[in-house]
Specification:
Layout lengths: L8 H12 L1 H18 L8 H19 L7 H16 L4 H25 L4 H49 L5 H10 L8 E8 L5 H7 L6 E5 L2 E6 L10 E9 L4 H17 L4 E3 L1 H4 L1 H6 L2 H11 L1 H4 L2 H16 L4 H8 L3 H15 L6 H12 L5
Parallel strand pairs: 4-5
Antiparallel strand pairs: 1-3, 1-4, 2-3
Helix pairs in contact: 1-3, 2-3, 2-5, 3-4, 4-6, 5-6, 6-7, 12-17, 14-15, 14-16, 15-16
């Protein structure tokens, strides 16, 4: 906690006189507003009454605390923060706002020092006044930066919510072409363009800004709501796998984006089940997408092929891993055995035991398909 400044009684009286004299207060406020407006172009966009009201509030709070020989309290800082938030919502940059406070602080000090000298204060006696003005400006600067930053966060959340709402309106249900075109315009996209829907989930710790930066700028719009990702792409893109897992639908006109969204959702569900991060389409996943999203069939096949192996404990697991590796190495015994660091005859024995235990023949296309199915997805417990 900052130590309150020591302000002599005579100086408190000076601040009190300025605060209580309405005519002089109006002149002081007008002068500070003039200095700000002349020096900082962004402030010229504010209506005069808005600028004057904000300056008056700040000056009144400053004089009120100074005449009591203290720094601004939480209520005064909260009031100033509300003014800063309004400035931020009106488009003023934080740099402009901080410059305004420093310029106004310098001018305020000049005017107060002149009044002090008129009352007979020496420069040495004015030093405490310099200190309280400096510390007051420092406190207000921190409040200003915090308020401006919060407005930026709130604005980004509102923009994210609006973008997400427009995207969901296009992707969550069928929409007439006219309404779909309006939503595309709201998103800054060409209403007669063709776009591919995106659905997915951001990786843990990936923020919405980082996600948007990961998608090429231009014809893509991405929004994140509780880590769920929705978006539209105007062209094929490559995305860093570390950003998350996403499904992409086919390019479609505005009125058919719902269908693209359904396909994107299926691709995402399959990629997530297969533990494949990055951007995926059904054309790429093909049968793996079907296998990953049909748990009922996976259970039927698992009961036939995996249940007998589970009864054999660790040996059954070795047999299953050998079969999976055999499939992934293109049914080549020597290559599979080398990858598993076992003798080819050991591998042949395990493959034969797979047939003995399950009845599945790895020369039968139907049995191969079922085995591949289970090797592709997480088998049910």
């Amino acid at each position: 906690m900052l130590e309150e400044p020591t302000v002599p009684a005579a100086m408190r009286e000076l601040f009190a006189d300025l605060a209580d004299d309405e005519e002089r207060l109006q002149v002081l406020v007008a002068r500070l507003a003039e200095v700000i407006s002349q020096a900082i172009p962004e402030y010229r966009t504010l209506p005069d009454e808005v600028l004057l009201a904000g300056v008056r509030h700040t000056v009144t709070a400053g004089l009120g605390s100074a005449k009591q020989g203290r720094l601004p309290d939480s209520d005064e800082l909260r009031g100033i923060a509300e003014i800063i938030a309004d400035r931020a919502r009106r488009g003023l940059s934080l740099a402009a706002i901080l410059d305004a406070y420093h310029l106004a602080g310098q001018e305020f000090w000049t005017i107060v020092a002149q009044e002090g000298r008129r009352r007979g204060f020496t420069d040495t006696e004015l030093l405490p006044m310099i200190e309280i003005v400096r510390r007051w400006i420092d406190g207000v600067t921190v409040a200003a930066a915090t308020a401006h930053h919060q407005v930026g966060i709130d604005s980004a959340r509102e923009d994210e919510a609006r973008t997400g709402a427009a995207l969901r309106a296009l992707l969550d249900q069928p929409v007439r072409a006219e309404s779909a075109g309006v939503h595309l315009v709201q998103l800054g996209l060409d209403p007669i363009g063709h776009y591919a829907a995106v659905r997915g989930r951001a990786a843990e710790g990936v923020t919405a800004p980082a996600l948007r930066e990961g998608f090429p700028p231009g014809s893509s719009v991405i929004a994140v709501v509780d880590r769920d990702v929705v978006g539209l792409l105007g062209a094929a893109v490559v995305v860093d796998e570390r950003l998350g897992t996403f499904g992409v639908g086919p390019l479609r006109p505005a009125a058919e984006l719902y269908e693209s969204g359904v396909t994107a959702g299926r691709a995402f569900a399959a990629a997530a089940q297969l533990h494949r991060p990055g951007l995926h389409t059904l054309d790429e996943l093909r049968l793996a997408a079907v296998a990953a999203t049909d748990p009922e069939m996976a259970k039927i096949v698992s009961d036939r092929l995996l249940a007998p192996l589970r009864d054999k404990g660790r040996y059954g697991d070795d047999v299953w891993q050998s079969v999976v590796s055999y499939l992934r190495h293109g049914f080549r015994v020597d290559e599979t055995a080398a990858a598993m660091h076992v003798h080819p005859n050991t591998l042949r024995h395990r493959l034969a035991q797979f047939t003995v235990l399950t009845g599945a023949d790895l020369r039968n296309p139907a049995d191969i398909a079922e085995t591949w199915w289970l090797a592709t997805v997480d088998p049910p417990d």
